């Protein structure tokens, strides 16, 4: 039986360091993957003149599963977001952002366990119809929501809830004001919910959702929403468990999946060996679950949980004094 091949994009800034940590953890857990390394972002731009070289796209297409570090898209100059480009290219319509409380972090809450399922290809992030007039006194952009796109993402959220024995799906919207786009999304969510009578369904306006997440986060289980709201709400959820350093993300489509650290490339601490690799290790756990390797995923999650709880050589953002390599070694020791 041939080994599972994984495309690995180390990324920019702290990316190579935290990706290296994740690969060591995967190897120590006995995952036995073959890695094909590819470049994107500033590292690729310097070498090839392109942010997203064709060779990288070909490897993602070939292996179907990719682990990615944070990438930097240069500001201005007409550069399109690399993440948005990847989502469009491979129709990665579902962005899955779980947050889970870990004892030992500086988080303000305990017992948080929320998954945000964000539509990844439509809405305000589609980039459609972006126009600024010559005087730069007026700008506009188009938001497009399709019935098929809404149905696909809501069904994904309900299927995930059912698979993981979760109790509730909350559709987050702004249909009271955005009566066409958000209205269609909510209409479809209500229709889909009827096919999942075993799972509680609720709907919530996005501003009320943000308030309730801060005041009563334990009320939430699975959140499903459109692209722009999902981006904001998922970062808010990350804040409940200690920040983006503890928040992984999966981008899933019918034919490919990309798992990533959702934080930025943090160039100010690049090469200093102080970055927290938890986000990309948690993304690796998501990847293992996607591949049906739940036993390995649980093994790594347990080791990571124990290290953070004990404070054994944890990084500064977790209240410790350890380096990236110290923190990684603590996880490897437990594995």
UniProtKB/TrEMBL annotation:
Q: Which residues form a coiled coil?
A: none
Which GO biological process annotations does it have? isocitrate metabolic process; tricarboxylic acid cycle
Read off the Gene3D superfamilies from this record. Isopropylmalate Dehydrogenase (3.40.718.10)
InterPro entries noted in UniProt: IsoCit/isopropylmalate_DH_CS, IsoPropMal-DH-like_dom
Keyword terms of this UniProt record: Oxidoreductase
Could you say which protein family the record assigns here?
Belongs to the isocitrate and isopropylmalate dehydrogenases family.
**Identification of the protein by name:** Isocitrate dehydrogenase
Protein's organism: Gallaecimonas xiamenensis 3-C-1
